[in-house]
Structures are given as structure tokens and as C-alpha cells.
UniProtKB/TrEMBL annotation, chains A, B:
Pfam families the record matches: TetR_C_29 (PF17938), TetR_N (PF00440)
UniProt entry tagged with the keyword NADP: no
Coiled coil: none
Lineage: Bacteria, Pseudomonadati, Pseudomonadota, Alphaproteobacteria, Acetobacterales
Species of provenance: Gluconobacter vitians
Protein name: TetR family transcriptional regulator
Length: 219, 219
DNA sequence: TGTGTAAGTAACTACATGGTGCATTAGGCG
DNA sequence: CGCCTAATGCACCATGTAGTTACTTACACA
């Protein structure tokens, strides 16, 4: 075998042994299983099976079930914050920027339903896994400062009301979108509607944008 | 023994065997355990122990772990709806009635933190336990109609905006209160605040009332 | 081409779990 | 008072669980 073919096999050819690929398969499978059944309900055997990996690998790379959960969760938080970063809030008029933010949050939850149940699991165990994550702290701070800057700009341009706290606003934006999805099953029983029909989704996002605009904007 | 003493023992004396009391102790213990650890995380042995009852009793009265969870959850839903019924929304000015409703929801979650985690568990398993509960359907319908009546009255009295849907409003009121509590642990990490300090609670309920009033009221 | 190391596998363990069979006992009722 | 039913208790089971031990195999580099 010529040496260049050997070299290629490192990066291009489908390798039989590929640590990174295996790790990723495990993480993807874990995300599915944890979000579907919760932290306690998730089965490591099921994760290993779905990842087409051996259970031993899972413990080799992530130490424990909780270690695996921690990694999954941190990746998910990083992912949403990264996507948020790409939002062009600074170059839009304040009101449009605000609406963009609300709509992004909404659509992110639709595209990533796992995120919500993972966060729920983490709160059930009182955030033990992320409590001491400096990375998470840093990206979160950045995000809040960005929203505060948007609020300040809106006030300067005389379109936003004064004295709104960025953290409170963030919590409210998250809540009206998050709650709708996480409680859609009990909601379907109580309100006797299909929460996921296109019409229902349309109605809700419209309502949510209205809610936030009336809260933040003048008039 | 005189017969009246025997009679008394049925209702007054501490009975060694008292089905209703045992049931109640099991239900209280189950509520604690299920809300603390989730449906999958809860241990029937722990429930029996805490209830000072035998595990056999638990299965005798509630058939299975899921049967017990169903009973606990239905009782909790009935409880919040019953308390809501006592709210004097009909005799207050519309705006005050709305504020009363928001404040009640907030305080109910503070007084009954278990409710939130129980509902989260139920949504994780896609509401299998309450899906076919006619009681729950009935009380929920009543509640929504009552809010719709309040909205209508507010419009007639020219203090509320037209065209607001009672279901959407209910979801929003629940969400801005519920989310704050259910996500207070991850929230503490992300926003670097104590979500449960008296000042934080005060700030949040004020913000939430403002949010709802600006959404519903004219001006 | 040979070799050390890291990737991968299968079988296993120790234990905890939800759930039961069966014997026992309290107490309301005739 | 004595009987019959419902409440209770104990010991047990089958199964599933997270985590591990001991081994094999691919492959990057010399």
C-alpha cells in the first residue's frame, strides 16, 4: 500500500476505529434518550445500542451516566447561544430586532425539541451538572449584555420604554415560548386543542410577539 | 362496651386500621417523592416507608406505580382549580380581577412547588395519565369560560382590548409564572441571581403583572 | 514490517427495582 | 359473642440496572 493511501485513511476514509466519530454517535444517541425519557428514565444500554457503540466506550469517554448527561447538556446550551450570536440584532431597528429575537427563540425550540426536556431534567436535579460550568456562565453573560444593549438603544431611539431589565425580559421571552412546548401534552387535555397544528403554532407566535412588543415598546 | 363508644371509634378514635387515613398518608408521601425525583426517579419503597405504610397497601389501593401517580396528579389539578374557583373575579373591576388572577397563580406555585414538577413529569410521558380524565376536562372548561367572561366584561367596560383569546391569555399567565420557578436552578447559573430571595420574587411578580396588564388593557 | 497503544467487545456482577403470594389480624355487623 | 371481610405485614421473585473485568484488534509510527 502506498503511504499516501494510509494518510488519507486518517481523515477521509471511513475508519473502523474513530474515537471522535464514536464519541459523537454516543452524544447524539444520549441526547435522544435523555430528552425522551429524562435523566433517570434514560437507559445507558439503550444509548450504547442506538449509538452502535459498546457500553464500555460510553464509560471510557464520559466516566458515568451523569458525566454523559453533563456533556450533552453543555453542548446544547453552547449550541443555542452560538446560534443566537449569529442574529443580526445590532443592525436592525430596535423593534425589528426584538421581534427577531422572539421569533428565533420560538423557532429554535421547534427545531430542537430535545433542548427543552434536557433543561427540565437538569432543573429536576437542581442543576447539579452545570452549576460550576464557567463556559456556560461566560456565554450567558455575553448574551444578557447584548439584550441590555438592545434595550438601551431602543430607549435612546425613543421606541422602547425605560427601566426594563434585560434578565426579566429574557426570562419572559423564554417562558412564553418554552412553556407552550413543554406543557403541550397536558395543555392539549386542558385546552382541548392540538398545540402543534400549523394554525395553532401560527396563532401562538403572533400572540407572543404581541405580548413582548406591548411590554417593551412605547404605545 | 356501650354501643355509643363503639360508634365513636369509627369516626373519632385513632383507629389501628383506617383505610382512608392510610390512603391519604400514601398520597402525601407519593406527592413528595414524585415531585422530588420525577416519575421514573421515584421509588415505591421510599413512598411506602415515608407513608409509614406497607408497600402492599400501596398496590392494594392504587394498583401500580402509575396508578398512584395518576391519582396524585388528578388531585393536584383538582386542588388548583378548586382554589381558583374561590377567587372573586366577577365582583372586581376587570383590571383588578386580572391582577388578582396573576397574583393567585404566582402564589399558588409558591405555596405548592410540587405541582410544577408533577406536571413536568406528566408532560415527559406525554400526559398518558390524564389523557382520558373527564373530570379534568370539565373543571378546565369551566375555568377557561370564566376567564373568557372576564375578558368580555373588560371589553364591554372599555378597559380591555378586543379580540384576546382566553386560552392564549391563560397559557401566557401560567407560563411567565411557571417558567420562573421550574427553571430557577438553571436560571440561577445563567442569570447569576438567587431566584428565590424575597427581593427577586417581588421584582418578578411586579414584572409579570405589568406584562399581563400591558397585554390586555387599553393604553 | 513489527509493535505499543488506544479503540473496541462480550460476558459478568452486585444490587435495586416494581410487583406478588400468602398468612395474619382488627373490627363492624348480625 | 363470633364470624366474615377488609386492612395489613412479611418474605419473596423475576427482571433490569449502572458499572466493570478481562480480553481482542486495528492502526499510526518507527
Amino acid at each position: 500500500m502506498p503511504p499516501e493511501k494510509k494518510r488519507m485513511s486518517i481523515s477521509v476514509k471511513t475508519r473502523v476505529r474513530d474515537a471522535e466519530a464514536t464519541k459523537l454517535r454516543i452524544l447524539e444517541a444520549a441526547k435522544k434518550e435523555f430528552s425522551k425519557n429524562g435523566l433517570e428514565g434514560a437507559r445507558v444500554d439503550a444509548i450504547a445500542l442506538d449509538a452502535k457503540a459498546n457500553k464500555r466506550m460510553l464509560y471510557h469517554y464520559f466516566k458515568s451516566k451523569d458525566g454523559l448527561f453533563r456533556t450533552v447538556l453543555e453542548r446544547e446550551y453552547l449550541n443555542i447561544r452560538t446560534e443566537e450570536t449569529k442574529l443580526d440584532l445590532e443592525n436592525l431597528p430596535p423593534r425589528a430586532a426584538l421581534e427577531t429575537l422572539v421569533r428565533f427563540t420560538w423557532e429554535y425550540y421547534i427545531r430542537n425539541p430535545e433542548f427543552i426536556t434536557l433543561v427540565n431534567s437538569e432543573n429536576l436535579c437542581q442543576a447539579v451538572h452545570i452549576k460550576n460550568s464557567p463556559t456556560l456562565r461566560t456565554v450567558s453573560q455575553k448574551f444578557i449584555r447584548r439584550i441590555q444593549a438592545l434595550l438601551d438603544r431602543g430607549v435612546r431611539e425613543n421606541v422602547f420604554r425605560e427601566g426594563i431589565d434585560a434578565a426579566q425580559l429574557n426570562i419572559t421571552i423564554a417562558s412564553i415560548n418554552y412553556y407552550y412546548f413543554t406543557n403541550r401534552f397536558t395543555g392539549a387535555v386542558i385546552f382541548e386543542r392540538d398545540f402543534t397544528s400549523p394554525e395553532a403554532l401560527q396563532e401562538r407566535i403572533t400572540f407572543n410577539i404581541e405580548t413582548i412588543c406591548r411590554l417593551v415598546c412605547k404605545n
